[in-house]
């Protein structure tokens, strides 16, 4: 069984460093082979691509734009009346993905509109999401890109988010039926919403294209105090044959580099992916 491959989420790690290029360099110096970033759009893609190339890193995941955050938007994929804006954002994400040689884009579903009842608008939002996903799958297929759906917990992180369980996301993926759309498994969100991680990982891993990790409930490093036994979960992912990247999307509890002791321990035990290449 091959060791897991880890990606530094630059929207969360190295917050002491200003700007994404500096965080890219820090990730490379810390031993990562890949990075991911939620929204890279404040930087020209050429700047990020050059920083990644110089650091010997791959960029493996970006998100579609969030929309108008001042109005409370956090993605547009399932938001009624915002279909045109979603498609414009998708085009921007594809441009960045191509420039960055990034193979995956998280297609953000978005929030239930303010003042709306979730139950009352669920059917309409799913219809919008399905239409947008079918469109996105076609656009992404032309560029050999993969689109990801990520459930985000509605108990702690984002009570208004539309897509909040792996079961809901898997059902939507099945309805769309496009092979280049997959599931993004953030273990932090899955534990909060449903638990049963062993069963859910075994059930859904065949359609998972990317994994992210953080401790629960504090969203710190995997080695920080919390509910989750990450040595067990990492072994489970290995045993189940997961070959994708594991994104480190957590809030460092102190200095980012010092807080990576858990990852250095993993590499010492399992070997660094670059060893022997």
TrEMBL record:
Which molecular function term from Gene Ontology is one that the record holds?
Answer: hydroxypyruvate isomerase activity
Report the catalytic activity. Answer: 3-hydroxypyruvate = 2-hydroxy-3-oxopropanoate
Top enzyme class, one word, equals isomerase
Stated EC number for the protein is 5.3.1.22
According to the entry, every stretch annotated as the Xylose isomerase-like TIM barrel domain falls at 25-265
One Pfam family in the UniProt entry: AP_endonuc_2
State the active site: 150 (proton donor/acceptor), 249 (proton donor/acceptor)
Which keywords label this protein?
Isomerase
Q: Name one GO biological process term.
A: glyoxylate metabolic process
Q: What family does this belong to?
A: Belongs to the hyi family.
Q: What does this protein do?
A: Catalyzes the reversible isomerization between hydroxypyruvate and 2-hydroxy-3-oxopropanoate (also termed tartronate semialdehyde).
Write down what this protein is called. Putative hydroxypyruvate isomerase
């Amino acid at each position: 069984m091959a060791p897991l491959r880890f990606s530094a989420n630059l929207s969360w790690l190295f917050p002491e460093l200003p700007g994404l290029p500096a965080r890219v360099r820090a990730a490379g110096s810390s031993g990562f082979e890949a990075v991911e970033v939620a929204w890279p759009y404040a930087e020209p893609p050429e700047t990020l691509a050059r920083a990644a190339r110089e650091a010997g890193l791959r960029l493996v995941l970006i998100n579609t734009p969030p929309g108008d955050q001042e109005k409370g938007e956090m993605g547009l994929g399932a938001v009624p009346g915002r279909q045109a804006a979603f498609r414009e954002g998708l085009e921007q994400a594809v441009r960045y993905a191509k420039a960055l040689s990034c193979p995956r884009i998280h297609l953000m579903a978005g929030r239930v509109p303010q003042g709306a009842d979730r139950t009352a608008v669920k059917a309409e939002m799913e219809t919008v999401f399905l239409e947008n996903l079918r469109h996105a799958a076609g656009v992404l297929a032309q560029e050999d890109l993969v689109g990801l759906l990520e459930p985000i917990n509605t108990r702690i992180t984002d009570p208004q988010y539309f897509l909040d369980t792996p079961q809901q996301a898997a059902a939507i993926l099945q309805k769309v039926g496009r092979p280049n759309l997959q599931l993004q498994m953030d273990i932090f969100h899955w534990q909060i919403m449903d638990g049963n991680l062993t069963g859910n990982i075994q059930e859904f891993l065949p359609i998972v294209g990317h994994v992210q990790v953080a401790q629960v409930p504090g969203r710190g490093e995997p080695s920080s105090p919390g509910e989750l036994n990450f040595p067990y979960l990492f072994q489970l992912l290995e045993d189940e044959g997961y070959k994708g990247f594991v994104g480190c999307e957590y809030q460092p509890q102190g200095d980012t580099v010092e807080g990576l002791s858990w990852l250095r321990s993993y590499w010492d035990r399992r070997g660094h992916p670059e060893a022997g290449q």
